[in-house]
Write a structure and sequence with these properties.
The protein is an alpha/beta fold. The chain contains 13 helices and 15 strands. Helices cover 45% and strands 24% of the residues. It binds adenosine-5'-diphosphate (ADP) and magnesium ion. Magnesium ion (MG) binds next to helix 1.
Length: 365
Amino acid sequence: MNITRLKLSNFKNYDVADVAFDNKVNIIYGNNGSGKTNILDAIHFLSVSKSYFGLSDKYLIKDDQDFYRIEGHYSQDEKKDHIVIKYKRDQKRDILLNTKKLKRVGDLIGRFPVVLIAPDDINIVKGGSKERRDYFNKWLCQSDRTYLDALMSYNRLLRQKDALLKGDYTPDRLTMEAYNSKMIGFATTLHNSIRTALSDFIPAALDQYSTISEGKDDIQLNYLSDLSDQDIDVLFNNMIPQEIHARRPLVGVQRDDYEFTIKDMPLKKYGSQGQIKSFLYALRLAEFIYLRKHLKRLPILILDDFFEKLDQHRLSTLLSLINSGSFGQVFLSDTELARSKTIFEERGITFGAYRVTEGSIERDQ
Ligand SMILES: Nc1ncnc2c1ncn2[C@@H]1O[C@H](COP(=O)(O)OP(=O)(O)O)[C@@H](O)[C@H]1O
Ligand SMILES: [Mg+2]
């Protein structure tokens, strides 16, 4: 699915914008702070109804306006779709697919898949377990509606159980077991889905890593979960006394982590900057490959601040990939046009160039 046209009203630093995109490469260029990332975030938003940066609606509305609206037109072969996301201050956000209001965010899942690579990806490696869980959850949700639904139900129960444990009255064992029995079903679904997905994703990520880095490093990616080698019922219910004592939930997929190692040492501590960049890049490409396979459509690939992440070797690898036809529509942002332009022209790849200046975007002639 390609995005052919994007319209914005009062979105971040844009009053109004209306721009038509190319089916292949789109280069968004302009000074720092002019609004390049905002355009890319709008495209991301249309795909998953979330800002890439996790910003809530009130931060997406331009300054002191009272609503924002994002409209995207998509096409694939003969099929055309359009989607509108609008929000008025202090009201619920509306999502319309081909003018029909969607009842649930999940109805959008997998229609317009997107993979965004941005500089703050580094937190996936350097940050805590939450950053890693969030990263994996995001693309798992994008690839699988059942996963999204199970995760939302699980998190709702987890919040309820947490509130119960922190409440004025100490819950008894039976109440705790009742919560657990509901949570166990969702936890099992989530855990099994992660394992199945990773059996596809991990080999792809390692493969991408060795392409990018010319295969010299011994990289590993492991899923760490309390749920892995135990009976999940027993695990949950054995923990009840400790949970009552600690007054918070102590077991479940919210404690999962993902371990990245290089030569059996933590990548975070032992990996060079270049190795970490290659690894992040490999994760994103594996995500792309996974979504493409499972959704049977080509995700839009977005590379924000293109040149910041790519040395000459990685750049060449990526460009040969773009050229090989494994990718569909690609968006790149950079502060200047000249360097991207040269690179694409040298390779005979056609592109559209879009100049961004202080909240306005225009296609170069
Ligand atoms: N809700 C908002 N209202 C108005 N301006 C905003 C809002 N959110 C972000 N901005 C502005 O958008 C600009 C950053 O745009 P961004 O797309 O990140 O720039 P860049 O071209 O460097 O990627 C900043 O000037 C920021 O103040
Ligand atoms: Mg930016």
